[in-house]
What we know:
Layout: H1 2-35, H2 40-47, H3 50-83, H4 89-101, H5 104-115, H6 122-127, H7 136-147, H8 149-162, H9 165-172, H10 177-188, H11 190-206, H12 209-215, H13 225-234, H14 238-270
Helix pairs in contact: 1-14, 2-14, 3-7, 3-8, 3-11, 5-7, 5-12, 7-11, 7-12, 8-11, 9-10, 11-14, 13-14
Amino acid sequence: MGGPSRRGNAVLVAATYLTVLAVLVLPVLLVMVEALRTGIAAAWRSLLDPDALSAIRLTLLVTLVATLVNTAGGIMAAWLVTKYRFRGRGVLVALIELPISVSPVIAGLVWLLLFGRQGWWGGWLDQHDIQIAFATPGILLATLFVTFPYVARTLMPFMEQQGREAEEAAFLLGAGFWRTLWRVTLPDARWALLSGILLTTARGIGEFGAVSVVSGHIPGLTETMPLHIETLYNGYQTVAAFTMAALLALIAMATVLLRSFLEHDFRKASS
């Protein structure tokens, strides 16, 4: 019985590794090879192009702001739905998870419906010389929407497991809300919080659909890194496109590896 079972497990493990290599690792390697096809110097020059630098700066700025805002919002949302029971709690949880199930393109269209020139508030915004659609604020709103769930959904299981006893004891001893949050609740959930922050960062850096709709694809102004890759590729600038894609892939892989490292440390500390 043991022999066939071991052989079956070996086949399953081998098939899993082959699938991962073919679907995940090989495409990244091909991107790296294509980026360096004409040499490191050419790839480096493509990254120093003003439009490329603008795309990198805009991506990092929007991702930083979205991560900070959604970290604060995610902590508050996770606290609310795990520490209290109230009517409509299930609806709130469903709304928190909504960006995961809704297509990012739909989110971008909603922002255009609200803030575009022909949108509900477009006339008022034009009168006051405020531009949201096809500008950085619109890109930020789109990124905020698609990245909102990750901190909240990562924290919720840990906060649910904590219960309310420690917080109630802190309140009885005279601690305020913020002191209780920082000194009692978050220290136990710090690894989950960091994991959620890293997921939010990775999602924000790689977002394409919603940002593509609200950005206007203006090179040097409203193009993020994913949008700039599309512009370069459509313009037959293959090396530059794959170089930017390689940089984006390296950032994403570094984020995922850091998250895996933190999770490993958390499991090791908990055991």
